[in-house]
Amino acid sequence: MSSTTTDTASSVDVVLIGGGVMSATLGTLLRQLQPEWSISVFERLGSVAEESSNAWNNAGTGHSALCELNYTPQGTDGSVDISKAVGVNEQFQISRQFWSYLVENQIIVSAKSFITPVPHMSFVWGEDNAAFLRKRYEALAQHPLFSGMEYTEDTAQITQWAPLIMRDRPAGQKLALTRSLKGTDVNFGALTRLMFTYLASTPACTLHTQHEVSDISRNGTDGWTLKIRDLRQNTQREVKARFVFIGSGGGALSLLQKTGIPEARGVGGFPVSGQFLRCTNPDLIAQHHAKIYGKASVGAPPMSVPHLDTRMIDGSPALLFGPYAGFSTRFLKQGSLMDLPLSVRADNIGPMLAVARDNWALTKYLIEQVMQTQAARIKALQDFIPNAQAKDWELVVAGQRVQIIKKDAAKGGVLQFGTEVIASEDGSVAALLGASPGASTAAPIMLNVLQKCFPTKMPGWTDKLRQIIPSFGQKLARHPDLCEEVFDKTTQVLGLTQ
What we know:
Blueprint: E1 11-17, H1 21-33, E2 39-43, H2 83-104, E3 115-117, E4 120-125, H3 127-140, E5 150-152, H4 155-161, H5 163-166, E6 175-180, E7 184-186, H6 188-200, E8 205-209, E9 211-218, E10 224-230, E11 235-246, H7 252-259, E12 268-279, H8 282-286, E13 291-293, E14 307-313, E15 316-326, H9 339-343, H10 349-358, H11 360-370, H12 374-381, E16 393-408, E17 412-416, E18 419-423, E19 429-434, H13 442-453, H14 458-468, H15 480-493
Parallel strand pairs: 1-2, 1-11, 2-8, 4-13, 11-19
Antiparallel strand pairs: 3-7, 4-6, 5-6, 9-10, 10-11, 12-15, 12-16, 13-14, 14-15, 16-17, 18-19
Helix pairs in contact: 1-6, 1-13, 2-13, 2-15
């Protein structure tokens, strides 16, 4: 979806920077809560959803912690901590409620174009890993957010649930697998385009593609002045806004730094690129219908958990395996090699050097990944598909992820693998930094933006927010009946019956 709007408004209530799922979600929420506000969206590329929200670039296609083992770490005493998994699943249920509201109210045309039921599975081999998976299952299965999860070590059952991973598998291997039929695949590119189609059709909202925000500065006490370059016409103009959201993925850090807000001091970024093997054999694609996650290699970042992933992209099934990590100094897939060097400032060089000092395992892992041959990639794939052949798979480059580096009193700096909203004290500007779980939790993250930036508005918005998200203000994990009611309703509205 692109826009060639000729709107030249010099002052608006809200500017959204970036044409991804985060800006689309925040814009759609604001349109429900404050329909009279004027909104301008600026996207550097020729269409929305072309960077991290693009289906081929996005690694998080429905993260709900049903199968991602990195969300349930095992302690030294052997116990499994499920708190992170519960939090991620809770957030995903908020996103599901938001999407259901959009479908029910015909804000977006159909759920079928962006969400599909796909079983989520965790698969491990070896005695120790099987023991871990069993403990994980026992910890999760009784929780209302994870009800219905199944566990098996029976090879016949695994073959029935996931035949592709069992074909020609050596006999005698200790195997274990969990399955949840509550899983989904989400095409965030399609969802983003649907929300922007809605926004662009509403009064006082304009979408500008091929428009780059080059600078942001304080405009006295009235908000912010943004310098905008029209890349088609090679012209520049200024736009004033009372509120600015920087949702431009890896590009958010440099724009946040330009605001000069104290909250941005000491914040840096570390880019990690991703690659996948994409199946080119339609027969193999047809034989697999699941998202199967394994255990990450020692030293691998959480976003590199290996998975064999069924996706629905623009109506057609696809099968990917990976990710294989890489390194580039770009902060965006279509960014500049100077992105990382130019992000280094006097206030963040200390934390960045501290992170470099303390993360040799990650550095070693990335070097090994960059040096990896196609034969080595196929060998890793064969852990999941024993008879995989190189001729059936091609290497594709996914999106860039920029992990957050922040000051730390004890270590000097820490590398974070989550997402974080950084906002000014007065709430007039906010930026989203980080990666996982990202798009899957866009709705709760944008609720966080609203709470941080519009605290005085929230009491008046609460009733509407409860219409949009029935569980707003409550924890589904603490209310099993509400959890079941919300899940059943969203399953019906979104058409997710397996």
